[in-house]
Design a protein that fits this description.
This protein is mainly α and 156 residues long. It has seven helices and no strands.
Length: 156
């Protein structure tokens, strides 16, 4: 069982809606995966707060205020879990591999020659391809890193 499959089962597991075999598989995964265990514990705590709130007598404003205070106490910022999709890592790996292959084929005089060709209006694909790859890698890095920095700043 991977983390994505486990996350889909947290609510059912907490509510007792899983069969015994699936529950055992999930529990085995939780024993070996601390990030899933933390997320599962958060779902369990949220479910317990909700259960208590639904069972409470809401006849007075004071009790409503107490419940709201408990809910706010139970809300903590989630740990920053950086999960970059497998496809992003694959794309980065392919781009980096192509970049190494293309630039690795140049010797120092070849690099000077390629740069002078790129400044020429008739500069070839030999320079255009690595340039585009480097630009794409830069854009992809900005797309991936900027949201992570924003999340970190929000938590501070």
């Amino acid at each position: 069982m991977n983390c994505r499959e486990a996350e889909e089962l947290f609510d059912l597991h907490v509510d007792g809606g899983l069969d015994a075999a699936t529950s055992r598989i999930l529990e085995n995964h939780l024993q070996g995966c601390s990030s899933c265990r933390t997320a599962h514990d958060a779902v369990k705590a949220e479910s317990e707060l909700l259960r208590q709130a639904l069972q409470a007598d809401l006849s007075s404003a004071a009790q409503i205020a107490r419940i709201q205070a408990r809910v706010h106490e139970g809300i903590r910022p989630a740990a920053l879990v950086v999960s970059i999709g497998e496809w992003v890592m694959a794309v980065l790996g392919i781009l980096l591999g192509l970049l190494v292959l293309v630039w690795g084929s140049f010797d120092s005089t070849g690099v000077r020659e390629a740069v002078s060709l790129s400044l020429n209006p008739r500069g070839g694909l030999l320079v255009a391809i690595p340039t585009v790859l480097v630009a794409a890698l830069g854009v992809l890095a900005v797309i991936v890193v900027q949201p992570l920095l924003l999340r970190i700043n929000e938590q501070e």
